[in-house]
């Protein structure tokens, strides 16, 4: 089973479905989930320095023996490493842990006070060919507009919280106009809500023999987003990848759009509450 690819503004292709590995902290469980995902067909993995599992991912991928060029690896610079030198240092640490000499995608995890220096370092890593595509995470329209004054290369991706309760319509319209690709984190609302029990999703799923989670993930895909659901459960890892043997109708999409309650469950990029 394969997943469609999305072509980013610089021509780099990213598999539309990847495995998110946030909150995978138990080493054995994480390694096992990654190995299982590889068997199912996942080739795209989303980690971050702050998740503390880059080394486990690196080891599991090495042991699986998949050719590096067949993998798509994303990592992110955490807040305490933002700045010019520290970002480069953090990037090299990520490479080492992941046992690779390049990343496919490197993101600024959250917008912070040293964003200009951080982005400058990332642009240099990109120019040196050490990372194939560069981007940001949790950036608002204001953050991206401000970037135009200091960036020589604009981000190719903005990874933000997105699910039917918080579909990010305004930001998505902006990103489309700016040719920045939208990537959904927390695509299933992180297990923090009753989303997957919603009767509208159950009803739609019944028509296709699919679970509410699959309906939600297909909704992300039909909107053209990149999606990185996390699971350590073998059935769910499989289920979250089995999304291409059905399609949602326009009516299904409209029904799901009605679930929008404009509610985020993660931090607000404009007011994160982080102490920098
Ligand atoms: N850039 C950022 O700031 C940021 C923030 C958060 C996340 N992320 C990235 O986005 C990825 C995904 O987001 P997330 O992990 O926070 O949340 P998520 O993928 O929306 O939800 C994960 C939760 O849903 C459960 N789940 C997964 N598949 C399911 C299914 N088919 N049916 C029912 N429950 C299911 C998982 O439990 P089990 O594991 O037990 O299946 C887990 O509790 C992360 O792993 C990370 O890579 C980025």
From TrEMBL:
PROSITE patterns, per database record: ALDOKETO_REDUCTASE_1 (PS00798), ALDOKETO_REDUCTASE_2 (PS00062), ALDOKETO_REDUCTASE_3 (PS00063)
NADP-dependent oxidoreductase domain span: 25-260
Coiled coil: none
GO terms, molecular function: oxidoreductase activity, acting on the CH-OH group of donors, NAD or NADP as acceptor
Active site: residue positions: 51
Site (Lowers pKa of active site Tyr): 76
Residues that bind substrate: 109
Alphabetical list of InterPro entries matching this protein: AKR, Aldo/ket_reductase_CS, NAD(P)_OxRdtase_dom_sf, NADP_OxRdtase_dom
PANTHER family: 2,5-DIKETO-D-GLUCONIC ACID REDUCTASE (PTHR43827), NADP-DEPENDENT OXIDOREDUCTASE DOMAIN-CONTAINING PROTEIN (PTHR43827:SF3)
Name of the protein: Aldo/keto reductase
Protein's organism: Jeotgalibaca porci
């Amino acid at each position: 089973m394969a997943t469609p690819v999305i072509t980013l503004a610089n021509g780099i292709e990213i598999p539309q479905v990847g495995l998110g590995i946030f909150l995978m902290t138990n080493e054995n469980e994480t390694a096992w989930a990654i190995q299982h995902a590889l068997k199912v067909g996942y080739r795209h993995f989303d980690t971050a320095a702050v998740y503390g599992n880059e080394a486990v991912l690196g080891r599991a991928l090495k042991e699986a023996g998949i050719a590096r060029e067949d993998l798509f690896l994303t990592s992110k610079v955490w807040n305490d490493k933002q700045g010019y030198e520290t970002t480069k240092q953090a990037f090299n640490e990520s490479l080492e842990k992941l046992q690779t000499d390049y990343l496919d995608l490197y993101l600024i995890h959250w917008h912070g006070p040293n964003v200009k220096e951080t982005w400058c370092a990332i642009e240099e890593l990109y120019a040196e060919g050490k990372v194939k595509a560069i981007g940001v995470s949790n950036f608002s329209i204001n953050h991206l507009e401000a970037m135009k004054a200091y960036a020589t290369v604009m981000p190719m991706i903005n990874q933000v919280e997105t699910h039917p309760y918080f579909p990010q319509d305004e930001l998505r319209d902006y990103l489309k106009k700016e040719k920045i690709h939208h990537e959904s984190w927390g695509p299933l609302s992180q297990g923090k809500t009753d989303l997957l029990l919603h009767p509208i999703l159950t009803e739609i799923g019944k028509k296709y023999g699919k679970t509410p989670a699959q309906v939600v993930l297909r909704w992300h895909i039909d909107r053209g987003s990149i999606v990185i659901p996390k699971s350590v459960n073998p059935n769910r890892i499989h289920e979250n990848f089995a999304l291409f043997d059905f399609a949602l109708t326009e009516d299904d999409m409209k029904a799901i759009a009605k679930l929008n309650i404009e509610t985020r469950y993660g931090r607000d990029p404009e007011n994160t509450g982080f102490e920098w």
